[in-house]
Amino acid sequence: FIFQKKMDELDMFSVHNEEEEDANMKPEDRKHLFKKELLKMLYGFGDDKVPYDKTLDLLEVMVCNYVRDISVAALNVGKPDKITLEDIHYLISRDPKKYGRVRELLSANQEIKEKSMPLLNGGLQFLRCIYLQLSVFYLQKEYQLQILVFSAISILSYDILLTPTDENSVIAHIFLWPFRSFFRTTAFLLFCYSSNELKDGDKEYACWSGYIALLLLLINPVWVYNGATEKIKNGIFVSIDVCIVNPLSKIYAAVYYICTFKFLKSLSEYSSRQAQRTKNFFIVTGNEISERLKKSWRYIISKMDYYLYQPMKNSKIGQPAKDKYHRFIEKVQYVIYGYWLSPVIEKVKITLKKQALTLLIYTKNFTIQLGIYLNNFVIWPVLVWGYNIALVPILEIVKEKYRYVEDNVLIYFLAPVCRTVINAVPEKSPFVEDSDLELDDFLPDENDDAESNTSWDPDDDEARRKEKEAALIAKKEKIKQKAALIEFPDFNDLGSSDEEFMFND
Known about the structure:
Blueprint: H1 2-10, H2 27-43, H3 58-66, H4 68-75, H5 85-94, H6 100-138, H7 141-162, H8 170-175, H9 177-180, H10 182-200, H11 203-225, H12 228-259, H13 267-336, H14 341-424, H15 446-455, H16 458-485
């Protein structure tokens, strides 16, 4: 994906030999041929296989395959068995203008390698982090020590053996290793320190140093991928340039300009420029003053015309004529357009509404009186007659039947049942013995019954009954006297006021 993006940005397929290119071949055809050759080279399709050096990576092989024919023609040699990057750089140095796009493609190749290697290292460091965390919890001390030593050795061997030398000697590459990457060098030292502490038995310091080393190894790919070092260095250089170099250079230039009397050379020119500027200023100022005076005079004339002449002309001549003409036109429009009909129609509407309301009130009162008459003289007598004829005999018959059934039930059912229950109850409880005296207090005394029977007098009982009847009669008389004071309405003469059914205006 990255390679395809870079090819689109650099327009790689436009790189070709203009002298040997077929004039009829289109860019799409060249792209198709290039892809075809690339598939042959990568997967061995066809018979045209080129034995390239296996140390070249994929993108370098693509570049070599693409510029192969051009390099053969430029170097004036036969078809080589192997084309290296040195040959391509030599070809670019011979004609930089012609093969400029190839140089851009090679720089893109280097950029892709620089971007992809930190990502690959980041993935490896992530796997290493997982493995070390698992070893902390699940492995013994000897295996943990071996893992720490192996991690330190892997960092050192990878940085020395597998990283490019950047056109430096091997000895310089080895001696410059501690200064190439701060994070990886610090991680190497921390792994060594962690292994030493673990060997001495201090597991806490060993664990913390190991985790810090892994954190540095995880930060390093992101740091390299984003170019943080270059950004910091550029920021420092820019800050030094802005804060120190530029002010000092400006001060030095000013001092040098003054001390060498170079300002005398431009003094005459400056004086002439100032004189010309002053002259132009006075000319422009005079023109502006004259123009403003003209505008002020025009403004005064226009205001006098607007506030003095025009109002006088309109008020004395034009406005009276306009008013008369407008009044005449309004009268003609009032008659012709029928504007006078609207007041007449409004008055007719008001009169009709009043008459309709009067008719509605009369109809309402008549309906109420008719309803009251029908209720008092037709509906109520019919209901009373129907009740007396139809319901009263039926109710009497039902009452007689109910009394007959009730008497039969009492005589033939409840009386035998009660007699049977009474006969079945013993006179004395079988659970109480004659010697038990606990419940004697609850039994009635036979002497009391005898005394009560001897003290009963039928005359006294009759006197009490008469007193109760006399009290009941006196109470009924009081109720009748109170009821006589209350006037109950006569439902036959029931009527309603017409004001209750009046419509609210």
